[in-house]
C-alpha cells in the first residue's frame, strides 16, 4: 500500500516551468488579440468620425431642401389659415415634415420638384444615420472584446503567479534565472544584415535583457509585437502593434529564404512574433519570466515568416 504522503509526487522544476509557460502563452494570445482589437478600433473610430462629418453635411443639405419647400408652401397659403403650414415649417424631423405636407393641398410643379429634392436628401440623410449607428455598434462590440481580453490577461498572469508562489523562493529564483540566462549574446558584427534590416536587427538586439510586459512597446519593456514594431519603426517601416496584423504586413518567405530582419511567427494562429537575426537564431520578447532574449529559430512551434518593407 502506497503511503498517503507519497500519493502525489512533488512536481519538478521542468513541470512547473511548462505549466507557467502555458499560462504565459494563453495570456499572450489574449494580449495579441487585445492589440489587434485596438488597431481595429483606431481605424473604426476614424471611420465613425468621417461618417459623422458626412452626416452633418447631409443634415445641412436636407435642412436647406426642407426650407425651400416650407417657404414655397408659406407663400402659397399666405392669407389663409396657417395652422397646418406653421406646424410643417417648424418641424425639422423629416418624417413629421412629410406627414404634415401630405395632408395639405397638391403642389404646383415647382413645389413638386422641390418636394422630390427634399425626399432625396432626407433619404440620403437616413442612410448616413444608419451607417453611423452601425459603425458605433461595431465599435461597442470591439470595446467589449478588448475588455474581455484584458480580463483574460489578468486571469492567466494571476494563475502563473499562483503556480510560481507555490514554489520555494530558492527554487523559483533558480527557475527564473535559468529562463533569463538561456539567452545567447550575439554581437551585431556577427549578423549578416544591411540597410533597413540592419537597423531593425541592431535595435532589437540592443533591447536584449529588458523586461516583457503585455501591451508594452518600449523603451524599458516590450511585448512580442511591440518589440518588432519598435525595431522596424527605427528603420522607418511602420508596423501595427499586433502579431496577427504583422502577419499580413509584408511578403511571406519560406524558412530557406530567411534573412536577418524577417519576422518569424509561432503557434497557430500567429500568437507570437520574433525577429530572425541569421545563423538559425532569433531575438524576441518571449514572456514575463524570460524577457527579451536570443534563442534558436525552432525553439517554439514555427508557423511562418514575413519580410517587412
Strand neighbour order, sheet with most strands: 3-8-4-5-6-7
- What separation lies between the terminal Cα atoms? 66 Å
- What is the domain tally? 2
Describe the main β-sheet briefly: 6 strands, antiparallel
Query: What is the gyration radius calculated from CA atoms?
Result: 31 Å
Order of helices and strands: HHHHHHEEHHEEEEEE
Task: Please identify the structural class as seen in this structure.
Answer: alpha+beta
Properties at a glance:
309 residues; alpha+beta; Helix Hairpins; endopeptidase fold (from Nostoc punctiforme); six-stranded antiparallel β-sheet; two-stranded parallel ribbon; 8 helices; disordered N terminus
Tell me about this structure.
- The protein has 2 domains: 13-166, Helix Hairpins (Orthogonal Bundle), CATH 1.10.287; 184-307, endopeptidase domain like (from Nostoc punctiforme) (endopeptidase fold (from Nostoc punctiforme)), CATH 3.90.1720.
- The protein is α+β, with helices and mostly antiparallel strands and 309 residues long.
- The radius of gyration is 31 Å and the shape is elongated.
- Residues 1-7 have low confidence and may be disordered.
- The strands form 2 sheets. The chain has a 6-stranded antiparallel β-sheet.
- Helices cover 58% and strands 12% of the residues.
- It contains 8 helices and 8 strands.
Amino acid at each position: 500500500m502506497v503511503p498517503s504522503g507519497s500519493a502525489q509526487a512533488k512536481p519538478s522544476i521542468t513541470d512547473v516551468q511548462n505549466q507557467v509557460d502555458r499560462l504565459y502563452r494563453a495570456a499572450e494570445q489574449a494580449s495579441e488579440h487585445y492589440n489587434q482589437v485596438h488597431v481595429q478600433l483606431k481605424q473604426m473610430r476614424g471611420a465613425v468620425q468621417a461618417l459623422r462629418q458626412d452626416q452633418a453635411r447631409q443634415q445641412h443639405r436636407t435642412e436647406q431642401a426642407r426650407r425651400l419647400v416650407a417657404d414655397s408652401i408659406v407663400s402659397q397659403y399666405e392669407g389663409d389659415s396657417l395652422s397646418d403650414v406653421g406646424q410643417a415649417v417648424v418641424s425639422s424631423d423629416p418624417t413629421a415634415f412629410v406627414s404634415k405636407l401630405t395632408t395639405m393641398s397638391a403642389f404646383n410643379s415647382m413645389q413638386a420638384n422641390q418636394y422630390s429634392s427634399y425626399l432625396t436628401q432626407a433619404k440620403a440623410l437616413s442612410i448616413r444615420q444608419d451607417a453611423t449607428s452601425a459603425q458605433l455598434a461595431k465599435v461597442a462590440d470591439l470595446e467589449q472584446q478588448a475588455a474581455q481580453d484584458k480580463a483574460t490577461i489578468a486571469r492567466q498572469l494571476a494563475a502563473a503567479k499562483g503556480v510560481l508562489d507555490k514554489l520555494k523562493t530558492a527554487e523559483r529564483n533558480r527557475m527564473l534565472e535559468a529562463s533569463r540566462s538561456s539567452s545567447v549574446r550575439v554581437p551585431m558584427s556577427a549578423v549578416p544584415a544591411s540597410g533597413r534590416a540592419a537597423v531593425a536587427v541592431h535595435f532589437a538586439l540592443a533591447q536584449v535583457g529588458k523586461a516583457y510586459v503585455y501591451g508594452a512597446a518600449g523603451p524599458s519593456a516590450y511585448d512580442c509585437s511591440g518589440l518588432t514594431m519598435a525595431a522596424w519603426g527605427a528603420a522607418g517601416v511602420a508596423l501595427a502593434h499586433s502579431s496577427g496584423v504583422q502577419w499580413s504586413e509584408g511578403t511571406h518567405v519560406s524558412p530557406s529564404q530567411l534573412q536577418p530582419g524577417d519576422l518569424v511567427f509561432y503557434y497557430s494562429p500567429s500568437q507570437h512574433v520574433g525577429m530572425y537575426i541569421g545563423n538559425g537564431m532569433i531575438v524576441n520578447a518571449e514572456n514575463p519570466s524570460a524577457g527579451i532574449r536570443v534563442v534558436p529559430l525552432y525553439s517554439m512551434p514555427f508557423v511562418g515568416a514575413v519580410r517587412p518593407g
